[in-house]
Structures are given as C-alpha cells and as structure tokens.
C-alpha cells in the first residue's frame, strides 16, 4: 500500500464526508458564490470533509472549468477533499480529472464504477495522477467480489465506499474485504447507515449529508459514544429523513436533497435544481420538507 494511500486512510478514519450537491439553475448554470457558501455551511454544520463532483454532485455532467472551480472552493476550506472522477464517455476522462484534482490540492479521488476493466481503470488513474483512490461499489453497477479483492490490493487504493442501498449482504461483504485488506471501509449507505456502522464501516461519505448535515453527524457521534439509546434515537431521525429522500425513483434523491438544502436556507431557490435527474411531482417537495422538519406533519 502506497504511503499516500495510508495517509488518506488514516486521515479519513472516523470522519463524515458530505457528498455535496452542486447547486445549479434549471438550465444547469453554476454560481460559484453559491457553491462557496453552500460548501462552507456543510463544514460549519458538522461535515469533517467534502466529497465534491461525485454522484450527488453530478460531476460527470460538468465542464472542466466548473469542475476546477468547485474543487478550488472546497480545498480552500482546509478540510479533507475527495473528488469524484470518471463516469463520462471519454476514455481518458477519469485520468484527466484525477490529474486536475491532484494539481488543485485534493486529497483523493472517488472512482466512478465503469464498464470493462475496473482494475485497469484504477491503474490508469494511478499512473496519470499518483493520487490516492477510493473505489466505489455503487448500486447502479455493483462490484463483483473477485474484482473488489483485486482493487483492494492496488497500492493506490485507500478504501472503498459502498452505496448499495438495500443489499445488506453486499454491503457487509465490502466492509469485510476492505478491513481484511487493511483499507478503509466507508459507508455510503443512506438507507442502511446505522447498520453499516455496526457491521464495521469506519467512515462515512453520504449524499444524505448534502443537507441536514447535523442529522448524519449526530449518528456518527452517538456511535463513537457509549449511549445505545442516543444511537438508536439518532439513527431513527436519519432513517426518517432517508425514507423521504432516498426512494424511487432513486436518481431523484439529488433533487430532493437540493430541495432540502433550499428549505434550510443553504442555497437560493433559483439554484435548487437537478437538470440531470428524473422529473419529480411537486407534492414530493412537501414530503421532503416535512421529513426535514420544515413543515408541520
């Protein structure tokens, strides 16, 4: 395991990374002032670090100039920053994005799962950028067990994030394999958050922390403590919020989290849009606001 991957693994252990959204208008325009205030607010409210341009941040859809500007604003906050790379049809896209992330001071990259040779893709990123990587077991493209073992032996891989949503056995497998390989087991399980910690996850990188950060941070804090009732209560609050935001159509969760961020005053209404997700009925917005405590039940 490369020393840089060891350093990232150890730095992230026990932390909550907010998988930040990218606030934008209905037409996809990004206001960097809004982005700066939004990212700073996530950190102020309990995020130990930031994952930008990942699945929640719609990284594959954004131009290199916008990507660079978002990374710069995240890095300026002085917390660990992980950048999502890959997911675009460009063959060299992930390697180019990783080089940019490294040059701008990011601490690591979260590698979108791709078709074909996943290990080869990680190796190409490692050769191009030499930046520590977090593998990604995502519900839209789960990682086969043998491939996962190979990835977790790569010297540049610091850990793996599991985001399988409802596959408890798959989540448990990823956590076990990561720990056996001496890598960091990172939960991205918004719908199995408390259980994934009990199964051995050592850090969190979740889209649920794109708003209402304190709800997720309270679960992490309670888990580190010794009060089982506090952990149960905090997990219950998180589960109620996740039930309203991480539901079918699942890709709509980004829009739901942006609605919640707007309800909290983190972003203006004009920038609470996800033009890349499925259309959602307006009545869902009220359900999300109620789950977040912004409308009476």
Number of strands: 8
Question: Tally the helices: what do you get?
Answer: 12
The major β-sheet equals: 8 strands, parallel, barrel
CATH superfamily: Aldolase class I
Q: What would you call the shape? A: globular
Strand order in space, largest sheet: 1-2-3-4-5-6-7-8
Strand and helix order: HEHEHEHEHEHEHEHEHHHH
* Mean model confidence by pLDDT: 95
β-sheet strand percentage: 5-15%
Poorly predicted regions: none
- In CATH, the topology is named TIM Barrel
Q: Could you say how many structural domains there are in total?
A: 1
Fraction of residues in helices? 40-55%
Question: What is the CATH top level name?
Answer: Alpha Beta
Q: Work out the radius of gyration.
A: 18 Å
First-residue to last-residue Cα separation: 51 Å
What would your notes on this structure say?
α2 (32-44) runs parallel beside α3 (64-75), α9 runs antiparallel to α10 and α11 packs across α12. The longest helix is centred in the last third of the chain and has 18 residues, at 228-245. An eight-stranded parallel barrel has the order 1-2-3-4-5-6-7-8, surrounded by seven helices. The chain contains twelve helices and eight strands. The protein has helices spanning 3-12, 32-44, 64-75, 93-103, 118-129, 145-151, 168-180, 193-198, 213-224, 228-245, 253-263, 283-291, and strands at 16-19, 49-52, 81-85, 108-111, 133-138, 157-163, 184-187, 203-206. It has a single domain, classed as Aldolase class I (TIM Barrel, Alpha-Beta Barrel), CATH 3.20.20.70. It is of the alpha/beta class and 297 residues long. It is globular.
């Amino acid at each position: 395991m490369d020393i840089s991957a060891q350093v990232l693994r150890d730095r992230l252990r026990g932390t909550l990374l907010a998988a930040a959204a990218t606030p934008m208008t209905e037409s996809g325009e990004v206001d960097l002032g809004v982005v700066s205030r939004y990212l700073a607010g996530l950190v102020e409210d309990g995020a130990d670090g930031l994952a930008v341009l990942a699945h929640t941040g719609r990284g594959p859809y954004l131009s290199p100039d916008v990507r660079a500007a978002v990374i710069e604003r995240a890095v300026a906050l002085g917390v660990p920053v992980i950048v999502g790379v890959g997911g675009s049809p460009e063959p060299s896209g992930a390697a180019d994005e990783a080089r940019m992330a490294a040059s701008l001071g990011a601490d690591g990259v979260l590698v979108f799962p791709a078709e074909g040779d996943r290990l080869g893709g990680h190796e190409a990123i490692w050769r191009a950028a030499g930046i520590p990587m977090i593998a990604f077991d995502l519900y839209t493209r789960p990682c086969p067990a043998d491939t996962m073992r190979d990835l977790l032996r790569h010297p540049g891989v610091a850990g793996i994030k599991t985001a399988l949503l409802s596959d408890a056995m798959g989540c448990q497998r990823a956590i076990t394999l990561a720990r056996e390989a001496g890598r960091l087991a990172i939960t991205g399980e918004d719908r199995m958050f408390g259980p994934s910690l009990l199964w051995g996850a050592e850090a969190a990188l979740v889209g649920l922390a794109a708003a209402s950060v304190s709800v997720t941070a309270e679960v992490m804090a309670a888990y580190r403590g010794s009060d089982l009732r506090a952990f149960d209560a905090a997990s219950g609050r998180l589960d109620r919020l996740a039930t309203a935001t991480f539901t079918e159509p699942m890709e709509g969760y980004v829009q739901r989290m942006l609605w919640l961020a707007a309800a909290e005053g983190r972003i203006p209404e004009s920038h609470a849009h996800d033009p890349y997700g499925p259309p959602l009925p307006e009545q869902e917005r009220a359900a999300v606001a109620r789950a977040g405590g912004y409308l009476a039940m």
